[in-house]
Design a protein that fits this description.
Elements lengths: L7 H21 L3 E2 L10 E5 L2 E10 L12 E5 L3 H7 L5 E8 L4 E6 L8 E3 L10 E6 L4 E4 L2
Parallel strand pairs: 3-5
Antiparallel strand pairs: 1-2, 2-3, 4-8, 5-6, 6-9, 7-8
Length: about 150
């Protein structure tokens, strides 16, 4: 698996605020949220009714305003595949949340959208040659307004 090197400044800038924003959104939707402390698994674990939800948050820095319709897909890094595999056996719901740079909108993507046939190489300014992503059509995701 080829992946972009870890960028601590991006992590420091976005990780904590994205997790807090996601946790608040889930609480507003009736979830009980536990600790959001970094454990290198999913970012936020929540419960609602009889279900456990495993929630992963990330910020798409290039997404600045309304989603550009010429961006046909949302890309989830291949490294997130380990979460899909890890939580298959947990009898819960795994969701990926991709936030706009200003955190005013977010796409919710179900784990069932991350299938092997969607795992392909991607190109971009901050993507290494050969790096793979799940390519999920944006119309398949749920766009949520937070502002």
């Amino acid at each position: 698996m080829i992946k972009h090197p870890f960028n601590k400044s991006w992590y420091d800038q976005f990780d904590n605020v994205a997790k807090k924003t996601l946790a608040q959104y889930l609480v507003n939707k009736g979830h009980s949220v536990g600790n959001v402390k970094e454990d290198y698994n999913v970012d936020v674990v929540s419960t609602k009714e009889e279900y456990t939800y495993f929630n992963e948050a990330e910020v798409k820095r290039a997404w600045k305003n309304d989603w550009p319709t010429d961006w046909a897909e949302i890309r989830i890094p291949e490294r997130k595949k380990r979460l899909v595999e890890m939580y298959k056996e947990k009898n819960g719901v795994l969701n990926f949340y991709v936030f706009r740079n200003d955190l005013k909108q977010v796409f919710r993507i179900k784990d069932t959208s991350l299938t092997e046939d969607r795992l392909k190489e991607a190109r971009g300014r901050n993507i290494r040659a050969g790096e793979k992503f799940f390519h999920v059509p944006y119309q398949e995701a749920e766009l949520i307004n937070l502002a």
